[in-house]
Amino acid sequence: MKKIILRADDLGFSRAINYGIYDAVQAGLIRSVGVMVNMADTAHGVELLKEAADCCFGLHTNFCAGKPVSNPQSVPSLVDENGFFHSSSRYRNAKEDFITYKDARTEIDAQYKRFVELFGEKPAYFEAHAIKSAVMTAALEDYAKENNLLYHAPFAALTIKDLTIPMYLGDIANPDYDPRQELINCVSSLEEDIPQMYVFHPGYLDQTILKMSSLTINRTKETAMLTDPETKAYLEEQGIALYSYAAIAKELKLPAAAGK
Q1: Distance CA 5, CA 193 (A)
Q2: Interatomic CA distance for residues 151 and 140, integer angstroms
Q3: DSSP symbols for 38-87
Q4: Is 122 helix (H, G, I), strand (E, B) or coil?
């Protein structure tokens, strides 16, 4: 059987993003949702989705939008003079890694504890939002090992025990991005019994997302595709089974976590 994981990132980023993810989950395709626990609209997103059937939730650890969960004064390398996280563009343009390991660990721990407060259990998976930082990655890896979390490294395949799940990266930054065609391309590369993952960023637009993110219109394209009944019909016609991080954990007999 061919399997695919369709993951949605950024729950909590804004109310419009929350509603887009909610609609994608309700349409039956998204079964893994990454939560940004530090944002003003996190509680709204969790309330919308926490009872969703066949949906599991991960900690989408965030270092570049909003304010930290921990006291900004305790993580000085992560924040600007106003106590907000440095932007993703600051990370992209930096000539050297400016995060300290201590600050990364402090904020990761604070976000993990906030996730547990919100859901009453550990995340079904553990990964990070948007940026590349060797120090951040090392801190994430160490935290995952110490807390027995199913860790998915940024922009990489997921490898756990004897299972490797490739990640399909759609060209979402391209103004001509066509999510339906990208999904077809992803499906065409599937192999029997080897799940593959496609990460989406569905959402609608509001002032918060227009101000804080460079990714805008293509979010709405993904929402339209993921909520179109023809998309689900196409996957069924192709004999593709929808998979999730929770399904991985169950199959590999890993500890239970947030979601179903």
Answers
A1: 12
A2: 8
A3: TSTTHHHHHHHHTT-TT-EEEEEE-SSSS--SS-GGG-GGGB-TTSPBPP
A4: coil
DSSP 252: T
Report DSSP letters for 158-226, one per residue. Answer: EEETTEEE-EE---TTSTT--HHHHHHHHHHT-BTTB-EEEEE------HHHHHH-S--HHHHHHHHHH
Backbone torsion region of residue 47, taken as left when φ is above 0, otherwise alpha when ψ lies between -120 and 50, otherwise beta: alpha
| Structure tokens belonging to residue 240 | 């593709």
Summarize pLDDT for 16-69 with one digit per residue, the tens. 999 999 999 999 999 999 999 999 999 999 999 988 878 999 999 999 999 999
Q: Which of the 8 DSSP states describes residue 119?
A: H
Q: What is the pLDDT of residues 67-101, one digit of tens each?
A: 999 999 999 999 999 999 998 888 888 889 999 99
Answer whether 127's CB lies under 8 Å from 153's CB.
yes
The values of phi and psi at residue 12, to 5°, are: 105, -15
Alpha-carbon torsion, ordered 24, 119, 158, 20, to 10 deg: 20
Q: Per-residue confidence at 166, pLDDT binned at 50, 70, 90?
A: confident
Q: What percent of the chain has pLDDT over 70?
A: 97
Of 77, 73, 18, 15, nearest to 207 by C-alpha is 15
CA dist 23 and 131 (Å) reads 27
Exposed e or buried b for every residue in 6-25, given b needs 16+ CB within 10 A?
bbbbbbbbbbbbbbbbbbbb
User: What is the identity of the amino acid at 147?
Assistant: N
**Encoded tokens for 153:** 């490294």
